[in-house]
Design goal:
Helix content is 33%, strand content 13%. With 402 residues, the chain is an alpha+beta fold.
Length: 402
């Protein structure tokens, strides 16, 4: 136990009395609840067919970093969910609060540590995070047997204020915010591999759409449990070779079009693009773009690049067109922030690009990309319109003339 503490670089400092320097070791506690970004609770589906593994996991408090795809989902078609929880702000445990840079527990002085733990009681609770060799201890911090710290020999810290009926993790809100911001800056970068597979013809467009929709939903979420489930769902999808999501809409799309089509599109391939695009209402889209790191945000196009999306725009109130960083997805919004889609304004809606014009850095690459975009996206639009209904209306003289 001593070696585990000594090698742990993270600190929570406790107020210590003057007598011998180590006598009063009980921290002061006020209850400041914060949203946990370190722990989640496992919730099993409570029905007759629930397996024993899932039943035994119900109600367990889990460190988010321990939840690999080997743990959740527990098996194919697992209906268990991860649920967010709350924590106690570490700064309320003591006037000094946390001095380290993570949510680990260690007393900053060996003598203080030994004095604190020498009278601590061993504690067992099957709902706390398990790890081989981990031992929990309790320290009463207020007379009456209701408020306790629960400490582990490898660095975890929890708090209860109602005699162990409810146990809260102890977290540093400021540090977790920094960790969360760093994670947001890096998360989308790991999907360059999938973008490369798509561009090389080794991934179905619908598979890439599924991944990027989940990535964007991850950035929109304010729930660490939801984010973790999204991360694991993507990892499980990767393990299938990008073939099976378990959702019929995506799986059927993956089977229908195994790779990006050639320049001469069939009518079915042209209209299939409407299943591949990613859409959000303006409030979510604005929030998403604020959270995405620089270089991965959707870019607003100038009026010349969005001129064919102005059919339904009032005089001098232009529709706004945005394109994703990879060039494949489009979003169009009216002057009053209405999302233009197949139901609201099919003539002006954003569509999926089989040949993104934003690809490439050299002049040759840009010219080649524009050629691909013109042949795969622009020409088919001029001749077939955005939807089958628009195309039929055009053939019957009801639609807009290109």
């Amino acid at each position: 136990m001593e070696k585990q503490f000594e090698t742990n670089p993270f600190l929570i400092a406790f107020e210590v009395g003057a007598k011998n320097g180590y006598q009063n070791t009980k921290p002061k506690v006020t209850n400041q609840f914060i949203k946990s970004w370190k722990y989640v609770i496992w919730r099993s589906e409570k029905k007759k067919g629930t397996c024993e593994t899932c039943k035994n996991m119900d109600g367990k408090l889990l460190d988010i970093d321990s939840i690999t795809t080997d743990l959740w989902p527990a098996h194919p078609n697992c209906a268990c969910k991860l649920e967010k929880t709350v924590a106690i702000a570490s700064g309320t445990l003591t006037e000094k609060g946390m001095l380290g840079i993570d949510n680990k527990f260690i007393i900053c002085d060996d003598k203080i540590r030994r004095n604190i733990l020498k009278d601590a009681n061993r504690y067992k609770n099957d709902c706390l995070p398990y790890q081989k060799g981990r031992i929990y201890y309790t320290i009463e911090i207020e007379p009456g047997g209701r408020k306790y710290l629960i400490l582990s020999n490898d660095g975890l810290c929890f708090f209860t204020l109602n005699n162990f009926k409810t146990i809260y993790p102890v977290e540093n809100e400021e540090i977790e915010a920094k960790n969360r911001n760093l994670n947001e800056e890096k998360y989308i970068e790991q999907f360059q591999k999938e973008l490369s597979l798509l561009e090389k013809g080794n991934m179905a467009p619908m598979a890439y759409t599924y991944i990027m929709k989940n990535v964007y939903d991850w950035y929109l979420s304010d729930d660490i449990a939801e984010r973790k489930m999204i991360e694991n769902q993507i990892e499980v999808f990767r393990k299938t070779g990008y073939k099976k999501t378990g959702i019929a809409f995506y799986d059927n799309g993956i089977k229908y079009m195994p790779s990006l089509p050639e320049a001469l599109l069939s009518e079915e391939e042209h209209f299939f693009r409407n299943h591949l695009n990613i859409e959000y209402e303006w409030s979510d889209f604005e929030k998403l773009n604020q959270r995405l790191p620089e270089g991965y945000r959707w870019k607003q196009m100038g009026i010349m690049k969005s001129i064919i999306h102005q059919n339904t725009a009032p005089f001098w109130k232009w529709n706004r067109k945005y394109v994703s960083f990879d060039g494949y997805f489009e979003a169009v919004y009216s002057y009053d922030n209405q999302s233009l889609n197949e139901e609201t304004a099919s003539e002006d809606m954003g569509t999926y690009n089989y040949g993104p014009s934003t690809s490439g850095k050299s002049l040759f690459d840009m010219l080649f990309a524009y050629k691909e975009h013109y042949l795969k996206d622009m020409l088919p639009y001029f001749y077939k319109k955005n939807t089958k209904k628009d195309y039929e209306d055009f053939l019957n003289g009801k639609g807009l003339i290109p």
